[in-house]
């Protein structure tokens, strides 16, 4: 895992209002590029990074537009982006996925999103009275341009869909829940753990859905469309924004091993607080111990 300079000092808190404004503007800039390519997918140049891991110039150009906007508005923050990399640094770091759901996008399935989150690092003040004890998502934006749905959240202030406050569902048991998940598609090393989890979920839950965009899975859980969600093999930028949106909607989003302060390792368990706890109990018997 990347490290950053813990010796830094800061005299004033992060301006979260300015940060969410920058993230929303950047998300729209990236989405505009995606949608300009959406009508000409056959012309896209597509590269294969690994098995079932694709990237197109739509991803790259959208990411460049997002980074340009964020660097102009928040030059002191670090940037970690899917295509161009980077490392955590400064008082806070942007985590960027310019196109979550690339396979959906390339196959003309209208279920993909831009995901942008700001992670404030341990020791960073958020106000005159609050200093973070651990790395914490503090700004989150997930924008679905196909539906024109903008999910946003700010630490301590709440979560919204197109400006309307959202809350997660009140479903109390897995038996009454619709769950979201993601199958192994790139990294199959955890398939032996995951498949028994899926078997249990199919046999217990009201329904299980796999839509192929983790950021939207979290956002949809935040607004109550799903009751819970779990997945393995993700990247930090897949889940950073959705983690905050779900938490600010009254839910819980945690590392599957319950060790990291947010699911930076890409193994996520989420839902309203009852369902998240029940999911941890359901998957625990099948989960290998973390080294």
Automatic annotation (TrEMBL):
UniProt family annotation: Belongs to the inositol monophosphatase superfamily.
- List UniProt keywords, sorted A-Z: Hydrolase, Magnesium, Metal-binding
- Cofactor(s) required for function per UniProt: Mg(2+)
For this entry, list what GO says about its biological process.
inositol metabolic process; phosphatidylinositol phosphate biosynthetic process; signal transduction
Q: Which PROSITE patterns does the record cross-reference, listed alphabetically?
A: IMP_1, IMP_2
A Pfam family annotated for this chain is Inositol_P
Question: PANTHER family of this UniProt entry?
Answer: INOSITOL MONOPHOSPHATASE, INOSITOL-1-MONOPHOSPHATASE-RELATED
Q: Which reaction does it catalyse?
A: a myo-inositol phosphate + H2O = myo-inositol + phosphate
- Residue numbers binding Mg(2+): 82, 97, 99-100, 238
Tell me the organism's taxonomic lineage. Answer: Bacteria, Pseudomonadati, Pseudomonadota, Betaproteobacteria, Burkholderiales
Q: Where are the transmembrane segments?
A: none
The EC number(s) this enzyme carries: 3.1.3.25
* Name of the top EC class for this enzyme: hydrolase
Q: Which GO terms describe its molecular function?
A: inositol monophosphate 1-phosphatase activity; metal ion binding
Q: What is this protein called?
A: Inositol-1-monophosphatase
